[in-house]
Please model this.
Amino acid sequence: MLTRILLVGGLATASATAQLLTPFVPPQNPLTPEKVLLGKILFWDEQLSSDDTVACGTCHLPEFGGTDGRPTGGLHPGPDGLFGTADDIQGSAGVVQQDANGDYAISARFGPHRQATGRNSMTTMGAAWATELFWDGRASQQFDDPETGQMLIPFGGGLESQAIGPILSSTEMARAGRTWQDVRTKLQAAVPLRLATNLPTDVQAALQQNPTYPLLFTAAFGDATISAARIAFAIASYERTLVPDDTPWDRYMAGQATAMTPAEKSGWQSFQNNGRCRSCHTDPTFQDDQFHNLGLRWAAEDIGRGAFSPVPDDYAAFKTPTLRNAGLRPRLFHNGQSPALGDPAQWTDPASVLNVYWNGHGVDTSNLDGFMVPLNQLGVTQAEVASVLDFVRTALTDQRAALRLPPFDHPDLRSAVQAPPRVFGPHLAGSSAPVLIDTAPPFPGNADWKLGLAAGDGNTTALLTYGFSSIEPNATVLGLPWHLNVHGWLPFVLAGAPGQPGIATWRLPVPADPSLQTVPFYFQLFALDGQAPGGIAASSGWELFIR
Model:
């Protein structure tokens, strides 16, 4: 606590012209170019997940302010478990639920689809200024070795603590029961960034010199040992370089009078004075490293910092995010309830940043932070609030991040540039609509490729048909939609509990044959289902390429 008081106190007493200082680096993990590059490679490698579908960077893209910019797939139903209700959360899409063998499983909340996190992705940009990470601060500044329990960093290790969390999370990146030995074994055999394209020049140079993970770890740490602690040290080192400090505001405060527009200067004045924004978003970092309850949703839905702190004010309180590059973020607040700063819905959506601060709270006023005073009672106009939002949106944006320039340059992730399998034609549902789980990347040489099959209700007998040409528009055979010219079929028993679809996993190693990339493969799933017309349910058609 004393450490945080000293840090926050120093920031709060800094003059408005203070420039960003170098982020604190724990002496136990000194920055080196080799370690930063290893961290950058690990951060952007989808192979760090169990099924090659999610990288750290998937949910933390610089061009989206260090958060998740994917337009779909991250909706979480919230505490009531129902989609389309008021407590829904804009989280981040992770992995389809998988058991300890890596076979697909049915999630109670998400069924056979990708799971989503229960909070909006917090920015990694400027995260080096925080002593504790995640919205609830559970990533503490004391970093203990995840494998041995030994304390490795007594102070300043919040980034290290944060870096390792998602890798074993069965929602974000992992199958059930994944261990650090599993991660180690995979990295020892993996070709670094095998699935990524458009590699930055520094990454290309590093991989030309050290083309395997054991060699990269040797360059960074002196020997080839891959451990959870070293993974954390490397990723944290990379994240410490993600400091968005080249903004119009920074240049203006450095003496360039024309660096900010007149409108931005007006917003800056309101930000400092009657807007009272500096109470929590203290410059130059534009955060206070503290936790506050804004009453966005009912406290019992997510108690936030209250899960780790006995202090009453911490109940349902969440970390103050930095406002640097907030203008690039598509969703705001810990639950993603607010639209982007430049969205016209800021004026009409009661859950928006503008309206929450204008009214001084969200839906719950039971444990509000003392700083939450309605701006509409302080003589502030909505136009002034809008000018503050415009100042944050433009004057605090580092265009290097928006344009993916160093230090925010990064590879293209496979999941972002490769089109997913095409789904076409109607399905015929019974107790559930048959679906194929197609998230595993079908690239040439993938010995672990798998396709999930989900249909019916509980234990179900199913038939997977496959072929090399489609029927579009579909034919109808025995009352069933028919989407491909069948070359063959495979029977499956889909295991499952009553009330949920049955599920199976078909594993098929993909040959390392480049000629396969020109061949389309088509699939359709049929399943016995007493609630379907004629007792058989049928999926849509799936078109898949080996790429």
